[in-house]
Amino acid sequence: MIKLYGMTLSAHTRKVQSALLELGLAYELVVIDLNKGEQHNPDYVALNPGAKTPTLVDGDLVVIESNAILLYLADTYGRGKLIAESGKDRWQTVQWLVWLASEGHGPLSRPWYVKILFPMIGMPFDQAGLDKSHTDAQVPLKILDKVLASQPYFGGSAYSVADIAIAESVFLSQWGGVDTSGYPNLSRWFADVTARDAYKSSRLPQNAS
């Protein structure tokens, strides 16, 4: 059985759970409690040298980095679901996963860090930092909204792992207080994504699908 190491409180783990559920794959969630520092346990570091979550183990194959895991699952088990097997839609999916990792996730997730995480770990609340993070988040939000003006999903015509990944980053922005209602195309898309059963189930504490 596939094993997923991580915790549902982590956006990166949640998006892998969402893909597993979309594909109807049975899996075991092995909880790595980041709050307790379990990601630094030697047995886990042997799987993931960066001591980050999530990590996916499928037989003798170990895959780290959430976007790489998404691509692995879609390519290995999707049979055209969650990523097109060839052509323009396939490369749009890959393109937006790479864009998210390199340009999008940082500014989209920053409001959550400043408003939620930093105070949780004892750092003083920084209103100026939060205001700046909200301003910075507008750059990727505008890009995403523009793309969705001409296509329903980031993978093109069909829901893909790019949509799964980007939705988590947009969710973190909203949790950090960013108002995304001024982006009508993004709002339409986000309502579509968050209505999916797999997305909703990935929010819940669970040990397996």
Can you walk me through this structure?
With 209 residues, the protein is of the alpha+beta class. Helix content is 56%, strand content 9%. It contains 8 helices and 4 strands; from the N terminus they run E-H-E-H-E-E-H-H-H-H-H-H. It has helices at 11-22, 42-47, 66-77, 87-120, 127-147, 161-175, 184-194, 197-201; strands at residues 2-6, 27-31, 55-58, 61-64. The chain is globular. The mean pLDDT is 95.
Count every helix, treating DSSP H or I runs of 4 or more residues as helices: 8
Give the terminus-to-terminus CA distance.
11 Å
Structural class comes to alpha+beta
Assembly state here?
Answer: single chain
Shape: globular
Number of E strands = 4
Radius of gyration: 17 Å
Low-confidence stretches: none
**What share of residues is helical?**
55-70%
- Main-sheet strand order equals 2-1-3-4
The ordered string of helix (H) and strand (E) elements is EHEHEEHHHHHH
Largest sheet: 4 strands, mixed
Strand content: 5-15%
Mean pLDDT level: 95
Write the layout of secondary structure elements.
Blueprint: E1 2-6, H1 11-22, E2 27-31, H2 42-47, E3 55-58, E4 61-64, H3 66-77, H4 87-120, H5 127-147, H6 161-175, H7 184-194, H8 197-201
Parallel strand pairs: 1-2
Antiparallel strand pairs: 1-3, 3-4
Summary, kept brief:
With 209 residues, this protein is an alpha+beta fold. The chain is 56% helix and 9% strand. The model has no long low-confidence stretch (mean pLDDT 95).
